[in-house]
Amino acid sequence: MVDTTDLFDRIDRPRRLPDEVAVSIIGAIEGGQLVAGDRLPTEADLAKRFGVARTVVREAISLLRYDGIVDSRRGVGAFVTDASQRSSFRISPACFEKRKQIVQLLQLRTGVQAGACALAASTRTSEQMEKIEETYAQMVAADKLGPANALEERVDSELLLYRRITEASNNPYYAEVVAMIEANIQNNLRSAFLKNAAASEFGADIIKEHYAVMKALREGDVEAARTSARTRFERAADRLAARADFA
Amino acid sequence: MVDTTDLFDRIDRPRRLPDEVAVSIIGAIEGGQLVAGDRLPTEADLAKRFGVARTVVREAISLLRYDGIVDSRRGVGAFVTDASQRSSFRISPACFEKRKQIVQLLQLRTGVQAGACALAASTRTSEQMEKIEETYAQMVAADKLGPANALEERVDSELLLYRRITEASNNPYYAEVVAMIEANIQNNLRSAFLKNAAASEFGADIIKEHYAVMKALREGDVEAARTSARTRFERAADRLAARADFA
DNA sequence: TCAAATCAGTTGTCAGACAACCTGTTTTCT
DNA sequence: AGAAAACAGGTTGTCTGACAACTGATTTGA
Lengths: 247, 247
Prior knowledge:
Two copies of one chain form a homodimer.
Chain A: H1 17-30, H2 43-50, H3 54-66, E1 70-73, E2 77-80, E3 88-90, H4 99-123, H5 126-145, H6 147-167, H7 172-200, H8 204-219, H9 222-242
Antiparallel strand pairs in A: 1-2
Helix pairs in contact in A: 1-3, 2-3, 4-6, 4-7, 4-8, 4-9, 5-6, 5-8, 6-7, 8-9
Chain A binds a DNA duplex (30 and 30 nucleotides) through helix 3.
């Protein structure tokens, strides 16, 4: 049975007008037509130009305001903020066209995960460590069954393992950032991930990489946790990048 | 002249209804009253309950949809997505109440910056290095003038220095994440930052920390860049945390 | 001269309507 | 009887128009 979870879904979903208007305005800002401090055209003006109702424009602007890209004042207008005011980090799905961007996102994940693992090595509770050991055991068991029998179990338990480790850092910011990066990678590369896992993420050598992280966590060795986690994710990224079929 | 940039601004700005509605709905989700897969009440229903117009509810829901917290389908309703679908990382200003959360954010910054510096050591161009050297020289010059004469210059050139280094990683994801964290720290702790800088971020010993990073970047030494950057930010966080007046 | 009142313009909110769409039910046809 | 088609009700998406709250500049009045 072939995995079809990432086929046949959400194609050509009906576009929403506010989103398109927002993208258009963001384009004007990123393109330099509107710079920090500039006032946007009035909502009525924008509505007329885009040929949509003012409610649509309002929703679009409210999205930009939400991200801190513009700031609107009643009775005055909406103004472009300077870039340092942006209050969110967002990965747009459209960014996954180019292979280069995937590599960059994997780099970011590597760095953040290394930090999270290092932190977890010093802050984890014994309860958290138990859960981590449990998940690790599941992963090892699935690994022994091989890619033909337990592909998804192997991949999912690995994801869960590192999620639990990240949560054991007891720093919600780390947990959130990692979760978001992971979700975006998964959503866009799930099938490639599975294929890659089947081809090059099984076996004793790979388990050794994970074991090094586990050992560091058990012993509370911060530096070892950092290094082993970084090594593990760098290598995984290399193996994934080495496969040409992920795009 | 005392710096008053972070006094007397944006107090009690007129609340916007959609934001409050959004916060209320998010609260219901985070509080567990609504779990993944649940359908939200209809917009008309919510409007009646909150005592606001439907446009207000729509704007609120559009914010949640923007963050991937809910997913709405025309003719059906809006549904809470599972947490792994969240598509943005956001630091809410309200989170800066507790000292613990500031420490956590500084931890995250340390980890991310270390990764960015390490990457920059291998990917920087010589043009980027020139700009970095230039900014470094400015910082050193401001440092020599002392906190009484060049406090803001010193702090701002340091911020610019690490922004340029991060950009030299040539990974926009790193740049964005760092910029966002930095902006949030600055917006909420600017005065504490300045005070702390005056008290404990001047002098040859501190410059040595930065110099170590610079040296690693010049030589393209990835590991040295990572370690020195981490050391530098860890120590800076420690010094800041050591001052009790930052809250 | 200078302060207060006025005014035009903009965003924030409200109310109602209709279009597009989904789901389940009923009707119709074979 | 069974399946296909039409229908009905409900929900989101969009449109329209109106008014309230507010700002900045202009005009007015003492």
